[in-house]
Design a protein that fits this description.
- With 435 residues, the chain is α+β, with helices and mostly antiparallel strands.
- It is built from eight helices and 17 strands.
- Strands 9, 12, 13, 14, 15, 16 and 17 form a seven-stranded mixed beta sheet that branches. The chain has a four-stranded antiparallel beta sheet with strand order 1-8-6-3, with no helix packed on it. A four-stranded antiparallel beta sheet has the order 5-4-2-7, with no helix packed on it.
- Helix 1 packs parallel to helix 2.
């Protein structure tokens, strides 16, 4: 009998939820067939069966969150096995109501909303409204919490808070007298614990508290691991974009392709990595357990895409070998599906370098955070019309600021400067990007 475990569907994924089982115990499965939808911190992805057989038993119910690598189902030959509890009844709670036949639900202990039997839609709505699912009564099959339950609970909670409730009187502490003039007896107390600098402050009384979504938790975790752990160095260069803007206009007017300046930058960044491969590297753990340098042969550029509740980085594999038009089509396609939660596993992993563009928001310059274990990240500002000096004359030109964030353990300041110098030269003579 073979194990089906929670897969790692992206480089940063540490846990996932079973959004929906597409097969049930007793169903015949062919290798490569889609058997479930897995919700990660980034998107909803399809889980393929790696072998053929009969789905013997589902271990993790829909909506349950488990770490990568944990058993979620069994596949094999022969008759379907009876459901087996995850632990003896004396040591573990019984399976959650509403679990399908052959399903062993994960225990309901843990973080507030993460171990409750609820539909994915109800779970997302609860995160948006700040509803603790432990306080919601489910009316779905077997007591499962559905969208209507969350909406009703939120409406009731809002109605309850609209009616002010006077605070209960506090009885005076004995044996201190009620009169304020007489102090209460001194009671020795333990010194207050000192809060750790990294701990977030307590929420103000007037604040609206909303639990972090899984995506936002993943972003917070990845950025916290990168910023303290990776010694960043920042180098900025200003690029004359007149020639690139003119070339882009010619391409778009030709009707063959519609491309953006960001497509030019992704292609140029990839080609420049071939000239300075030290920037296309990562720190890894070697066979001896010590830090080692991994020099990537492929140039895979990830492009940050803004979502409603966070961001996601889709990967253009072998970007140095693709045309600007192909890069545009791939990014547009992956970004659209990422916003719909339909991006594929391989489109989120394997990046060796990242490009983040905030120019569309009018940002002129910023520093991006490196996504470990990559060595560098390129921050792209807006193309601006400004006065420039050409041939001792002041004219109107297009300029762009690029900032390279680099891991100083791998990339020295001089190497970062050489990379930006080569990238600047390529963007200022953009025909070299197309050949």
């Amino acid at each position: 009998m073979g194990e089906i475990t929670m897969p790692r569907l992206s480089d940063t994924m540490s846990e996932g939820a079973v959004g929906r089982w597409l097969k049930q115990p007793g169903d015949q499965i062919t290798a490569g067939e889609i058997i479930a939808e897995i919700e990660t911190d980034k998107a909803t992805m399809e889980l393929e069966a790696y072998e053929s057989g009969t789905l013997q038993r589902i271990v993790i119910a829909e909506g349950q969150i488990v770490p990568v690598g944990q058993l979620i189902a069994w596949i094999g030959d022969g008759p379907v096995e009876a459901a087996v509890p995850a632990a003896p009844p004396s040591a573990a709670p019984p399976p959650a109501d509403g679990a399908a036949p052959g399903v062993v639900a994960a225990p309901t202990t843990g973080d507030d909303n993460e171990r409750i039997v609820a539909s994915p839609v109800a779970r997302r709505l609860a995160e948006e409204l700040g509803v603790n699912l432990r306080h919601v009564a489910g009316t779905g099959p077997g007591g499962r919490i559905i969208r209507e339950n969350v909406e009703a609970h939120a409406a009731q909670a809002k109605a309850n808070t609209a009616v002010p409730v006077p605070p209960a009187p506090v009885a005076p502490a004995a044996p201190a007298p009620v009169a304020p003039a007489a102090p209460a007896p001194a009671v020795p107390t333990a010194p207050a614990p000192v809060a750790k600098p990294s701990a977030p402050p307590a929420a103000p009384a007037a604040a609206t508290i909303t639990p972090l979504s899984r995506m936002r938790k993943a972003i917070a975790r990845a950025m916290s691991e990168s910023k303290p752990g990776v010694p960043h160095i920042y180098v900025t260069v200003e690029v004359d974009m007149d020639a690139a803007m003119a070339l882009r206009q010619q391409i778009n007017l030709s009707g063959a392709h519609k491309v953006s300046i960001n497509d030019f930058i992704v292609k140029a960044a990839a080609k420049t990595l071939l000239k300075l491969p030290a920037v296309n590297a990562s720190l890894v753990t070697g066979a001896d357990g010590q830090l080692a340098l991994a020099q990537h042969t492929a140039v895979n550029v990830s492009v940050a895409v803004a979502l409603d509740d966070g961001l996601i980085a889709v990967v253009v594999h072998d970007a140095d070998k693709k045309s600007v038009g192909t890069i545009n089509a791939e990014i547009h396609d992956m970004a659209g599906r990422a916003r719909e939660g339909k991006v594929k596993q391989h489109e989120l992993e394997g990046a060796t370098f990242q490009v983040t563009n905030l120019g569309m928001f009018g940002v002129t310059e910023f520093c991006s955070i490196i996504v470990a274990p990559q060595a560098a990240s390129l921050a792209v500002g807006a193309v601006r019309k400004v006065p420039v000096v050409r041939h001792d004359q002041i004219v109107v030109g297009h300029v762009l600021n690029l900032t390279l964030s680099a891991d100083h353990r791998i990339v020295d300041g001089a190497v970062a400067a050489h990379y930006l110098k080569a990238l600047k030269a390529l963007l200022e003579a953009p025909l070299g990007i197309l050949v």
